[in-house]
Design a protein that fits this description.
6 strands; binds zinc ion
């Protein structure tokens, strides 16, 4: 059995290893209320008891928004680190971290926690250019 050393630190933020961003293109025609959101829920609504003893991958998601419709053009995902929730401080650190992002969602089945931010890269959907 192999366990990663888990130095106990309050500061979650640290320089991530050279993990590449994974970019996903999104068409504005795709509805964002599909099944994919059903599995995720707001981190703030998740209780400590549901997370205790589990390990999660923290993933930062940056939504690149269209200048016209302000819906995502694409998303960039990056694995930040893994974190084990072994005590209430670990849980509180997660909640604290979530406050600096647009929103935070958890997919408990996949063991992933997503921190969302957004950016305006100065791009426009091809579909939106046609509307101008
Ligand atoms: Zn658009």
């Amino acid at each position: 059995m192999r366990s990663l050393p888990q130095p106990h630190e309050n500061q979650i933020e640290r320089p991530a290893p050279a993990e590449p961003w994974h970019v996903t293109s999104i068409s504005p025609k795709r509805e964002h209320s599909g099944t994919e959101t059903l599995l995720k829920k707001n981190l703030k609504e998740t209780k400590f008891e549901e997370l205790r003893g589990k390990t999660f991958e923290l993933i930062r998601v940056v939504e690149m928004l269209c200048e016209v419709c302000q819906k995502p053009l694409s998303t960039k995902e990056k694995l930040l680190r893994k974190v084990q929730i072994s005590n209430i401080e670990d849980y509180q650190n997660l909640l604290n971290r979530a406050t600096v992002h647009d929103r935070a969602e958890i997919d408990a089945e996949k063991g992933k926690i997503y921190f969302y931010d957004h950016d305006f890269p100065g791009d426009i959907h091809p579909e939106c250019i046609e509307k101008l």
